[in-house]
Amino acid sequence: MSEWALAELGLDYEPVTVDMRSGQHKTAEYLKINPFGKVPALVDEGMPLFESGAIVLHLANKYGKLPPNELAVAAQWVLWANSTLSEAFFVKG
Fold this sequence. Notes:
Layout: H1 2-8, H2 28-31, E1 41-44, E2 47-50, H3 52-62, H4 71-90
Antiparallel strand pairs: 1-2
């Protein structure tokens, strides 16, 4: 979701591959970005963020695509997608 949002906003970014098999996600350097050692994560002008919903809301807010009065509505749908929609796609049964 985060990479899609970066592309939609037309932002230049540098994707970084995290080699989880070698434990790169558990290094002290990576844990400073995401203390849970998961992906996705983003560092925007020195500010580390994790969780795709938080990243998407930050990008939309920072780069002018989310008017202040629409933050609650956007948060509602991002939170719904992360909790409900993702479960429908990624949980067996």
